[in-house]
Amino acid sequence: MYENSRLIIDSSNIPDAGSITWRSPSNIAIVKYWGKYGIQLPRNPSLSLTLTASCTDTQLEYTLKEGNLDGKIDLDFFFHEEENEPFKIKIVAFLESLLPVYPFLKQLKLTIRSGNSFPHSAGIASSASAMSALALCLCSLEDTLFGTLKESAVFDQKASYLARLGSGSACRSIFPYAAAWGETSQWKGSSNEFAIPMENHLHDTFKDLHDDILIVSRAEKTVSSRAGHALMEGNPFAAPRYEQARARFSTLLDAMRVGDLEVFGKIAEDEALTLHALMMSSNPSFTLLRPASLSIIEKVRQYRADTGNQVYFTLDAGPNVHLLYPGDIVHEVRAFIEEQLEEHCEDGFVLQDWVGEGPEEI
Length: 362
Ligand code: PMV
What we know:
Blueprint: E1 17-31, E2 36-37, E3 41-42, E4 46-64, E5 74-79, E6 82-83, H1 85-97, E7 108-116, H2 127-146, H3 152-166, E8 178-181, E9 195-197, E10 209-214, H4 225-231, H5 238-258, H6 261-280, H7 291-307, E11 312-315, E12 321-326, H8 330-341, E13 350-354, E14 360-361
Parallel strand pairs: 5-7
Antiparallel strand pairs: 1-4, 1-14, 2-3, 4-7, 4-8, 5-6, 8-9, 10-12, 10-13, 11-12
Helix pairs in contact: 2-3, 5-6
Bound molecules: (3R)-3-hydroxy-3-methyl-5-(phosphonooxy)pentanoic acid (PMV).
(3R)-3-hydroxy-3-methyl-5-(phosphonooxy)pentanoic acid (PMV) is lined by residues 29, 32-34, 46, 127, 167-169, 225, 229, 275, 316-317.
């Protein structure tokens, strides 16, 4: 939808070198995206909260290069200050796929330096923060070179679109507090191509949510989310699942508008377990949950029953458990985590995160 052969550098008044840096966070889906078609197009709408502490900083340096437009992407890539060939290969492939949108990329010598705020191999997927940070850098680059993305809504939509092409869920990280992705008749302007901001439809309760991530395992996933999405194509529960996600999306929108934390929490937990049930009912089936994930879930339910404190769990495509709760009970919940849950975490590792204002240019 953004293909544009006119984005070619042909003027001498363009700065011939420069640097752009963005910090972009991860996000946690409450209604999950699981199942896709085409190029990262979702089978159902999803809704996520934008996190803060789990983020990626990406610096994009560019120099105008002598050469012709048949050239290849010319990239040096550093991850945490070190050259990283596997990441470089992925990013070159991504940038090559963007050439119909950004033909000028071939006219530049690019250097990307990227790093995550969370420890390497923390068991946390960084594709959402990394791909959104890179997409934002590319949009800033477009605007610097051509002045075509002056309006912030236009800028954000294109950044979300580009991020999606890199990693589906990354498209939701562009926006503050919360974002929705996927076409639904319930929301005018919703799209499969990019996410949309939900901040203005959010009760203040949801702007003050914590998400402490209990790291059950730092190990890399045994099944990638790409493979997991693909297995949905043969899953016997796929069609009812997509219907269910649509219904939950609608209920969640209402709950988030009026500030109903209980309904929100129920959907978060139901979606987490549904996601893993879909993995277990795929063919071949796979299990990413660990016994410790289940022990944490049981304890969270018990804690909620005992104290009435509104603490809810959710899961990503992995064994680590996210605990969602409002800011006013942070001290009690942190004590609960320390006393009862840290023992289930690898080296007692908990990553404290919270809902936040989204990416920033730095
Ligand atoms: O963006 P991907 O392709 O890594 O898929 C992520 C899917 C989940 O994280 C499991 C759910 C979601 O909506 O973020």
